[in-house]
Specification:
With about 100 residues, the chain is α+β, with helices and mostly antiparallel strands. It is built from 1 helix and 4 strands, in the order αββββ. It is rod-shaped.
Length: about 100
């Protein structure tokens, strides 16, 4: 199970790094005196599993037995939810969607 823990921790670290780029407050888009700053939300999903085995799954299964199995997966999604608009001295927030 140590290998499963290492796999999941490594996967989580990589997903955090991916999700941290331009997350929450993305780089501003500027045109003259008008600046638009995308505000984002981050969703992070992670799953994994592992196992060990000894012996055959049933008495008629020759050639089966022993073994180790592990796996993991995950994903990161960053989506804009609003924009901060700075137009000269005026500042406002506009929701998206």
């Amino acid at each position: 199970m140590k290998h499963v823990t290492q796999l999941l921790n490594g996967l989580l670290d990589r997903l955090k790094a991916l999700g941290a780029r331009n997350a929450v407050v993305a780089p501003p888009i500027s045109l003259g005196e008008r600046h638009v700053v995308p505000l984002c939300e981050i969703s992070l999903g992670l799953g994994g599993g592992g196992g060990q085995g000894e012996g055959a799954p049933h008495e008629h299964a020759e050639g089966y037995g022993k073994g180790t199995l592990m796996g993991g997966g995950g994903g990161v999604r960053t989506a804009p939810i609003a924009v901060l608009i700075i137009d000269g001295d005026e500042v406002r927030v506009e929701a998206l969607g």
